[in-house]
Write a structure and sequence with these properties.
There is one protein chain. This protein is an alpha+beta fold. The chain folds into two domains: 3-198 and 378-383, 2-Layer Sandwich (Ribosomal Protein S5, domain 2); 202-373, GHMP kinase, C-terminal domain (Alpha-Beta Plaits, 2-Layer Sandwich), CATH 3.30.70. The protein is built from eleven helices and 13 strands. The protein has helices at 3-14, 87-101, 125-140, 147-162, 169-176, 216-236, 250-255, 262-286, 290-306, 313-324, 347-365; strands spanning 20-29, 41-42, 44-57, 62-67, 72-77, 109-115, 181-186, 192-196, 202-212, 329-333, 338-346, 370-374, 381-383. Helix 2 packs across helix 3 (125-140) and helix 3 packs across helix 5 (169-176).
Length: 384
């Protein structure tokens, strides 16, 4: 992304002097899918694609914002009644409002921003946008808000101003990201630990099916209910300490198999297995054992497809091609029903894998998958 382009459009819109430059990244999640609402672990990393904003105080109570990508302008105050119509502007407005609700008072500012996180590919462009402004306003106006609370401000923006009931992972990864490291986040305790991710001789690449099957929200809610029900049944049958499926072992689940529907049992089996896989990946990363990491990725895909049933024909097809090409690890990333696979590929297999995946996918589905190579990078920051 060219910062000079954003600076030029900022100057064209708002005149000199130049503002400060801030950036926040999108994210991937290596493993730990559908675990957040089960009190489990996620394993995100910030990536080298994100949002960049030029911001300058304007000495008023107004925000004047220019979207470089959409070539659209919005102006608003920080009063609740002044919610902007443009959906993109609500992310900035929401961050301001959530700060005000917490007793922090950023002043007015002028801003222009742009991003290179692919939209709709599951890399959290919205969290990158929220984190850019949360981090920037906290820094510029010396508001003294800690990074955890900045992540919650981004999450609350999604809930209250965008209408998306997301977890905390996306904003957390965007703010806490560290180059060359993935972050294992315990979504129950919010404890986190950095793990080295230096896969020399490998590349990390996303293949985007560019499809999104309907059903996603109702199917998501149904799976969440299945998980909560299974945890409750285990708790009521001799395991009072169970709060979430994250606390359940396969032995405990098998004890109540007859008391669960086949569907609920399958959903729970996936989540219990995913908790085990996340911990196995933690150990493997400490040893630079990327073969084990890859094996766990394939097991996660199998579980999401066969047990959790959130994959689709296109995602399963790409996963099969990855296996045929000897790719180290591949799985659906994100909620499922479309979107991307994330693939850990040896350098010498990379070009052949991409060529085969593109050609075979296009032959079957009529279009090539989009390809996004990503590098694990730093989180929100000011660019001097």
């Amino acid at each position: 992304m060219h910062i000079e382009v954003i600076k030029k459009q900022f100057n064209d819109k708002f005149g000199d002097p130049a503002g400060e430059v801030y950036a926040s990244p999108g994210r991937i999640n290596l493993i730990g899918e559908h675990t957040d609402y089960n009190g489990g672990f996620v394993f995100p990393g910030a990536i080298d694609k994100g949002m960049v904003a030029v911001i300058r105080r304007n000495g008023t109570g107004r925000v004047r914002a220019w979207s470089v990508d959409l070539q659209d302008y919005a102006e608003f105050t920080m009063e609740e009644s002044d919610r902007p119509e443009a959906s993109w502007a609500r992310y900035i407005f929401g961050v301001c409002r959530e700060m005000v609700k917490r007793g922090a008072h950023p002043g007015g500012f002028d801003t222009a921003f742009a991003g290179d996180v692919p939209l709709g590919a599951g890399m959290s462009s919205s969290a990158a946008l929220e984190s850019t402004y949360a981090f920037a306003l906290n820094d510029m106006f010396s508001l003294g808000i800690d990074k955890f609370e900045l992540a919650r401000i981004g999450q609350a923006t999604e809930h209250n101003y965008v209408g998306v009931k997301c977890g905390i992972m996306d904003q957390f990864a965007s703010l806490f990201g560290k180059a060359g490291h993935l972050i294992r986040l315990d979504t129950r305790s919010m404890e986190y630990k950095y793990f080295p991710f230096h896969p020399e001789g490998y590349r990390l690449v996303l293949l985007d099916t560019a499809v999104k099957h309907e059903l996603a929200s109702s199917a998501y809610n149904k799976r969440r209910e299945s998980c909560e029900h299974a945890a409750r049944v285990v708790r009521e049958n001799g395991h009072p300490g169970v709060e979430f499926l994250r606390d359940v072992t396969m032995d405990m689940l098998n004890e109540v198999k007859e008391k669960l529907s086949e569907e609920d049992f399958k959903r729970a089996e996936y989540v219990v297995g995913e908790t085990t896989r996340v911990l196995a990946v933690s150990d493997a990363l400490e040893r630079d054992d990327y073969e084990t990491v890859g094996r766990m990725m394939y097991l996660t895909h199998d579980g999401m497809s066969r047990l959790y049933e959130v994959s689709c024909e296109e995602l399963d097809f790409l996963n099969d091609v990855a296996k045929e090409c000897g790719v180290t690890g591949s799985r659906v990333m994100g909620g499922g029903f479309g979107g991307c696979t994330i693939n850990l590929v040896k350098e010498d297999l990379y070009e052949g894998f991409l060529a085969k995946a593109k050609a075979q996918f296009a032959a079957k589905f009529g279009h090539e998958p989009k390809v996004y190579e990503v590098v694990i990078s730093d989180g929100a920051r000011r660019i001097d």
